[in-house]
Amino acid sequence: MRGKTTIVERILVILIIFLFLVTSFFPSITAGKVKTFSKNVNKKTIAKTMGNCKIFVKIKEIKALENPDPWPWAAAADFKVIVKIDGFTYSKSFDSDKNHIYPNWIATHSFEYKEKIDINIKLVDRDPDTDDVCDINPEVGVKSCSLTYNVNKDSWSGDDDGTGHSKGDGKDKPQCEIWFEIWDECNDEMSVDAGGPYRAKVGEEIQLYGSATGGQPPYRWRWYFYKNSEKIGQAEVQNPVVKFYSVGKIDVFLRVYDDSGDFADDYTTLTIFEEEKKDKYVVIVAGGDGLGDVSWWPDDRADDEDFEEEAEYAYETFKNLGYSDDDIYYLSGKSLKKGGDAVTTKDNVKYAITKWLKSKSDKNSDIFIFIAGHGVYIPKLGSVVAVYPGRPWNVWEVVMSKEMALWLSELKYSTCTVVIEACQSGGFIEDLSGRNRIIMTASDHFNPAYCGSFPYPFFGELRKTSDTYKPSYSDAWMAADKRVDGNSPDEQNPLIDDNGDRKGYGDNRVNLLPNDKDGDGKYDPGEDGWLAIQTFP
Fold first, then answer.
1. Threshold 0.70, pTM exceeds
2. Which residues contact 523 (CB under 8 A, 6 or more apart)?
3. Whether residues 374 and 337 fall in one domain
């Protein structure tokens, strides 16, 4: 039978939450969550300024071979050029009433190096109602000029036959011609990437992936493998398949030579581990504060719905990974959803950890706990997360980091991973940190967490599990940290602690694991991320 919250406990928590509500009005403690992210974790936003290469399209001369505007009030053309480069559009309007101009305007586009870039040049005559597209293509029925620029050859091909001059066929109206020039500037310095860090079981084949840019292709590849400073192997292909039979970390060095003899290096690691047959159990909690049922502006979604969807996404992730419902205890929010074991209340959260999980887990088990909800940090009291969706003002139903530490102390396990998706959730690290525990929070003690920014890329990375890629909880945290630091305001700051020092690792930059805390260029046991990189769902 599940225990009920006593009157004394409720009074104590109400006093704490009173502090929670008061401190929420001060800007230094921002407790609200802002919805800015979706579940589309694969969607990429590409800025026009990214990349180490630039391409330039210079419009040198434009001429109308017949007046595009044969009207008494329109003496001549009002030209506008639209240049599309690799899917990005740039445009420029020029002086009015001129049939022959020398604009010398340059469209500039930055991009990550690739061999070929598609370009389209369109010329229009501006009109008050509808612009006329001028014909600058020698083919009948096509008016714009399409080109493909080859970065390696510094030349292009297309409708102008690579001449930089294109003229309309005379049948499509109005007929015009255009002169242009295209060139690029790329950083030709060699750059090498060895991929990784890699992980594999003892005796398991794993493929390494090398890449190189710059220099003068073709390339020659040299991989070197060291363990405890002793060379244990090498390979001379771009993407070698390797296999090792002893547990431990292998230092992997890649050197790539170009055709001129220049070279560049990169370093990564390969961790070989012995897979243990472990039972794995998961607790998933969709939290909320009841007030999240209210939409505060037009077309807004309720916050509690976001927490429910995040928890549902986590549940579906573990189901996709092969977990049965007997291995998952799922509190699905204010209502019971498919696969759910119960609605979310504080009593049910406590039951899930201290009763259900305690009855399942032993010293050989890996356990995972995910809680999503509103949160706040109260100095000297720790962080709290609200778990009373659908019941506004049940403020005694918050899970406090200090009481959750007591719940976890009742459990036996091999590893315990806790992920808290809440504002100001960093206080959970101080109170839950311990031996064989991996504690991850969506933000630190004092900053907000934006809905979906952490959990969707985290669980999305775990969903990439395949025969060739087995993401660890370290990979999932790095994917979430990269998404947060690349897409949300700088104040959100995901943290991780798995070395038991009660100090979360992470800042508002993209962080890698393990953390090279001592700065010796090597990843050592006892540095944050070392346990997570060896722990898999």
1. no
2. 197, 249, 269, 514, 516, 529, 530
3. yes
